[in-house]
Amino acid sequence: MKYKGQKITIKKIKSFLEGNAKFLLNEFDMLPTYYKEQVIWRASICKETCLANNDECEHCGCTASKKIYVEESCNEGKKFPDLMSKEKWEEYKKENNIEVYV
């Protein structure tokens, strides 16, 4: 089965469910700050590409505004890495001079 030219797989279904669930958790302010920061940072990286391109991820074709909530990066770290633990994220922000305000 295909959706928008993309083959539907178990991995894509899992990613869809995770992205939508975490998007809703964020709507109810139920995500930890370090997680929100990473989502905001991902959105800033994708704002002129995926989010501006009919909200479609240029790497996987998923809905970008939900895909940025998924822990596993679909771009193999080319644009940004997988979501990190609080400790790793704090270290990554320092090493890469990243400032994010929630």
- Which value, in Å, is the CA radius of gyration? 14 Å
Strand content: under 5%
Low-confidence region ranges:
none
Sketch the topology as an H/E string, one letter per element: EEHHHH
- Report how far apart the termini are: 39 Å
Helix content: 40-55%
Which strand order does the major sheet show?
1-2
- Main sheet, how many strands, which sense, barrel? 2 strands, antiparallel
Summing up helix and strand content along with how strands pair, one would put the structural category as: mainly alpha
Work out the count of structural domains: 1
Q: What would the principal axes of the Cα set say about the shape?
A: globular
Instruction: Give the overall pLDDT as a whole number.
Output: 93
SS summary, helix count: 4
